[in-house]
Amino acid sequence: MVRIMKFFYSLSLVLILLLSSTTTISAATAPAPAPSSAPTDIIRILKKAGGFTTLIRLLTTTQVSTQMNAQLLNSNNGMTLFAPNDNAFQSLKPGFLNSLNDQQKNELIQFHLLPSFVAITNFDTLSNPVRTQAGDDPERLALNITSSGNQVNLTTGIVNATLGGSVYSDHQLAVYQVDKVLLPKDFFLPKRPPPPAPSPEDKPKDSKKKSDADGPASSADASSANKRGVMLLLLTFFLVAVSSLL
């Protein structure tokens, strides 16, 4: 009996020492966090510039600002934002913004975003129609950009706007003020009919039933095998411990 107690006492000490040394090594080798510059924040940029209250509200409520900040942090392509100021939004038809649902508001903001950084001197290198974050549908989401000298014009088929100058640029994010809100044709064209529902013959009923029938049995077999493995491991450890005491 004394030998058994000594054995378990020694085993406990060994386990405590192992845990203590492992914790110490982990703490000693943990690398110090590398210093990093402050991430780009589009809301902070627009607030500092001033005059973009409505755009800031839309960027926030649609969560596009969060998506932009994350993309700028994880991508090397950069982004370009065409930023209508408050005067541009006030020139819209009264009640227009309130008539848009959440999906349309998201599309409206994404339509003002290019998925790459474009310097103010490089607009003449773009191929029309320019792809925006809203998509590349040439009929419903077309955005054409032309430049002549120092003037850059944007047209959607609904709105003709002019670039008013650079608000911010850091070779990763470019923000340019525009004098009008860019409205995509998608808002004014008839809605596309939804795709037809699949016919009953197309649904793989037999394969689904077979999968449902096989699933629980397979899970039960795997669980039973795991339990047997654990019991065998515990039994082996017990026999080794007892044999060491004899």
TrEMBL record:
Occurrences of domain FAS1 (ranges): 39-182
Keyword check for Cell membrane: yes
N-terminal signal peptide: 1-27
Low complexity composition-biased segments: 214-224
Disordered: annotated segments: 187-224
GO CC, alphabetical: plasma membrane; side of membrane
Cross-referenced SMART domains: FAS1
Top-level taxon of origin: Eukaryota
Compartments where found: Cell membrane
Membrane-topology annotation of the record: Lipid-anchor; GPI-anchor
Record's keyword terms, sorted: Cell membrane, Glycoprotein, GPI-anchor, Lipoprotein, Membrane, Proteoglycan, Signal
Compositional bias segments (type: Basic and acidic residues): 200-213
GO annotation, biological process: plant-type secondary cell wall biogenesis
Family matches, as InterPro entries: FAS1_dom_sf, FAS1_domain, FLA_A
Family: Belongs to the fasciclin-like AGP family.
Function noted in UniProt: May be a cell surface adhesion protein.
Record's protein name: Fasciclin-like arabinogalactan protein 12
